[in-house]
């Protein structure tokens, strides 16, 4: 007796044409940065809501050779201002001589968009910005 097996059903794999593709979130963009030489703060405003729970103030530096002749780190704490805005308290790390007030912030600040977009930081950003 000859037994013929039933035809095999085609396997349903993920088809590239049918797979849902999700673009990574857009990078987080800084839209304003205002330094207060009196209050020793810098207010950072972004293009959308942020998560700053992992904030690392050692990665935020303000250089003020104009008003106070000091260099600062953002290690004095963070104040929530709005969904897209924080105020960073600055702590002096010593004297600084230069030509203009500016901000340096690395990508390791811990500031990210709530949708997951990363902030690359800034280098030599003249303050106030814009």
Give a brief description.
This protein is mostly beta strands and 130 residues long. It has no helices and 11 strands. It has a 5-stranded antiparallel beta sheet with strand order 8-5-4-9-11, with no helix packed on it. A 4-stranded antiparallel beta sheet has the order 1-2-7-6, with no helix packed on it.
Give an overview in words.
With 130 residues, the protein is mainly beta. The protein has a single domain, classed as Immunoglobulin-like. The chain has strands at 30-36, 41-46, 50-51, 60-64, 70-73, 78-82, 85-89, 91-95, 102-105, 112-113, 122-126. A five-stranded antiparallel β-sheet has the order 8-5-4-9-11, with no helix packed on it. Strands 1-2-7-6 form a four-stranded antiparallel β-sheet, with no helix packed on it. It has a two-stranded antiparallel ribbon with strand order 3-10. The mean pLDDT is 92.
The main sheet comes to: 5 strands, antiparallel
- Counting structural domains, the number is 1
CATH topology: Immunoglobulin-like
Which strands sit side by side, in order, in the main sheet?
Answer: 8-5-4-9-11
Q: Calculate the mean pLDDT score and round it.
A: 92
SSE succession: EEEEEEEEEEE
The gross shape turns out to be: rod-shaped
CATH architectural arrangement:
Sandwich
Bin the strand percentage: 35-45%
Helix proportion range: under 10%
Structural class: mainly beta
Summed up, the helix count is 0
Spans of 5+ residues with little confidence (pLDDT < 50)? none
CATH level-1 class? Mainly Beta
As a whole number of angstroms, the C-alpha radius of gyration is: 24 Å
Number of strands: 11
CA(first)-CA(last) distance: 86 Å
